[in-house]
Amino acid sequence: MVVQFVASMIGTTVAAVAPEITASIHFDSSFMGIYTACLYVGACLSSLVGGNFIIKYGPARIAEYGLLGCSLSLLLCTADWSVIIIGSGLVLGLAKGPLMPANNTMVSHHTQKEHLNFVFSIKQTTGPLGIALGGVMTPYLAVNYGWQVAVVWVAIIGLFGAIWCLAVRKSQDTYTDRNEKINTKTVQESFRMVVGNKTLLRLSIVSIFYQGLATTIMAYLVLLSSYINSSHWSLVALLFLA
Question: Phi/psi of residue 26, each to 5°?
Answer without folding.
Answer: 55, 50
